[in-house]
Write a structure and sequence with these properties.
5 helices, mainly alpha, 0% strand
């Protein structure tokens, strides 16, 4: 992974016109020029955001499994409610307790 990051950094620097001799470190003026051009901060930001996205991906995959189960159960409950005819009773209760502006908004069109 470190080799891939180093390659990406090298390619970004090469595209910005930098040519380095093997084994020579950055000079302060070269580093300052990179910071002025904005190349280095963008590459670093890209690498850090990739790591953050990979961590978030794992969390979101776990949440999606739970969300699918919840929505599946909700779909079954709503389907059964419609099949046995209790959806009309639920609609009456919701209309009775909903504010007037919401009833007007939902029945306008």
């Amino acid at each position: 992974m470190k080799l891939i990051r180093a390659f990406i950094l090298f390619m970004a620097l090469a595209q910005s016109g930098w040519v380095f001799a093997a084994g020579q470190p950055f000079t302060k003026s070269q580093f300052d020029n990179l910071m002025k051009e904005g190349t280095l901060p963008i590459v670093i930001l890209g690498l850090l955001s990739r790591e953050a996205m990979l961590k978030a991906k794992v969390k979101l995959q776990g949440a999606s499994g739970i969300g699918k189960k919840i929505f599946g159960m909700l779909l079954i409950v709503v389907s059964l409610t419609i099949l046995i005819g209790q959806d009309k009773k639920a609609e009456e209760i919701l209309n009775q307790y909903s504010p007037d502006w919401l009833t007007a908004l939902t029945t306008t069109y």
